[in-house]
Amino acid sequence: MPRYAALLRGVSPMNCKMAELKKALEGAGFTDVKTVLSSGNAVFTYRKASESTLEKKIEKVLKKELGTEFSTIVRSLDDLQKLIDDDHFKKFKLKPKMKPIVTFLKNKPTAKLDLPMEKDKARILKLKDRVIYSAYTPSPKGAVFMVLIEKTFGKAVTTRSLETIKKIVRQ
């Protein structure tokens, strides 16, 4: 049976406990559930299904069991491993302090962009399918990359560091 990752938007230790997330997913029939970090990542096994079907099922169960709505994006672990293996950041020669991030889009993008683009040390490097590859240099201005991404693609997205994606795949 396939392994998937559920990437929840807007989760923090203050609004969703990982033990409760795990229990809710197990109660919905997902097996071998493991949470990764405290930012709303869960890896699970489930019969072959479309990502959108799994997203709707998870969003519904979280609303029912946790009383909170979290936009959810699902990707197969195989797809995430391919994302890592393809190393989309290599050709951009990121500076040492830059952090590579990956933003997953819920829907196919409609924006046409001249990439790469940069604002306040945040760079959108590449868009491929429903994945945005970006990098940023941490600054006192906060998560300026999210402002740039949301302004360009809307809020039906969720972002993870490349290191977090690697941790998810190792589960």
Mind explaining what this structure looks like?
With 171 residues, the chain is α+β, with helices and mostly antiparallel strands. It contains five helices and nine strands; from the N terminus they run E-H-E-E-H-E-H-E-E-E-E-H-E-H. The protein has helices at residues 18-27, 51-66, 77-86, 144-153, 162-169; strands at residues 3-8, 31-36, 41-45, 72-76, 99-105, 117-119, 122-128, 131-136, 157-161. The strands form two sheets. Strands 6-7-8-5-9 form a five-stranded antiparallel sheet. A four-stranded antiparallel sheet has the order 2-3-1-4, with helices on both faces. The model has no long low-confidence stretch (mean pLDDT 92).
Placed side by side, the strands forming the largest sheet appear as 6-7-8-5-9
Sheet bearing the most strands, described? 5 strands, antiparallel
**How many strand units?**
9
- Our count of helices gives 5
Estimate the mean pLDDT confidence: 92
Order of helices and strands: EHEEHEHEEEEHEH
Topology:
Elements: E1 3-8, H1 18-27, E2 31-36, E3 41-45, H2 51-66, E4 72-76, H3 77-86, E5 99-105, E6 117-119, E7 122-128, E8 131-136, H4 144-153, E9 157-161, H5 162-169
Antiparallel strand pairs: 1-3, 1-4, 2-3, 5-8, 5-9, 6-7, 7-8
Please give a handful of descriptors for the protein shown.
171 residues, alpha+beta, five-stranded antiparallel sheet, four-stranded antiparallel sheet, 5 helices
What is this entry, summarized?
The protein has 171 residues and is an alpha+beta fold. It is 32% helix and 29% strand. The longest helix is centred in the middle third of the chain and has 16 residues, at 51-66.
